[in-house]
């Protein structure tokens, strides 16, 4: 159980980060997208599109168009997420209403890229702290829960419709730049949520498993899980009492890992697969290389 002090610190940290998310998203909207008539995807994009035809403050539009999604989310996601999302959306609307940022550039390409960058940073930080700044994510969760359609596909269809309407009502050029903004926003959001580290899962089956284990520990400093293997049939015949190595490494080290294994056993059977999330243990944080070497030496000396 977390102590009261820890809970308070965690809560303050979350709301500070939500404030930072609001500031970053506001910069993307007020300093880049809004003054130049560009759109983003989701509810924000709908509000920006309506703003081009109706002289209503963007803050009011964001709140109005977010209400149906928040009501939908009340029956779909946790009440805590909805409460934090209400705070975040109201905070974004108020910040946009009272704060005026100077237009930084008139270059359309820079507007699309940096507008999407700041907006993506804001949305990503908000999601990491259990909140949303855009209701389209809630719509995706609802439809996924009811019909099994992936959240990504729901948001994609939503935005395809939005950008098609933009091309028809405004211009194809604005729609294309808005699509670029959306792509940048989505990519930056993913990076913030998932992190910059890209992990790969690897399963290795080899008769030289002992040597391979030590090499991975010494050279890569990666932790691993060992499975006890049973009988196997293949081109090399039958063998038993062997270890199956399962490890997770950074994608940047994958070539080095292949070289290490090939130097020991060119016929080793290797399965590589993407890892969507890593949490805890020595999987998320590599072993210190020196500690890894000491551990490898200890294992070798004690035949572990």
Q: Gist?
A:
By secondary structure, the protein is of the alpha+beta class.
Task: Explain the overall architecture.
With 304 residues, the chain is α+β, with helices and mostly antiparallel strands. It folds into two domains: 8-194, no CATH class; 199-302, Alpha-Beta Plaits (2-Layer Sandwich), CATH 3.30.70. Helix content is 63%, strand content 9%. It is built from twelve helices and four strands, in the order H-H-H-H-H-H-H-H-E-H-E-E-H-E-H-H. The chain has a four-stranded antiparallel beta sheet with strand order 2-3-1-4, with helices on one face. Helix 1 packs antiparallel against helix 5 and helix 3 (58-74) runs antiparallel to helix 4 (79-98). The radius of gyration is 25 Å and the shape is elongated.
User: Helical amount among residues, as a percent range?
Assistant: 55-70%
Could you say which structural class the secondary elements and strand pairing correspond to? alpha+beta
* N-to-C span: 35 Å
Secondary-structure element string: HHHHHHHHEHEEHEHH
Summarize the topology.
Blueprint: H1 4-33, H2 42-51, H3 58-74, H4 79-98, H5 108-128, H6 136-147, H7 151-169, H8 172-194, E1 199-205, H9 209-220, E2 224-229, E3 242-250, H10 254-264, E4 269-274, H11 281-284, H12 289-302
Antiparallel strand pairs: 1-3, 1-4, 2-3
Helix pairs in contact: 1-4, 1-5, 2-3, 2-7, 3-4, 3-6, 5-8, 6-7, 7-8, 9-10, 9-12
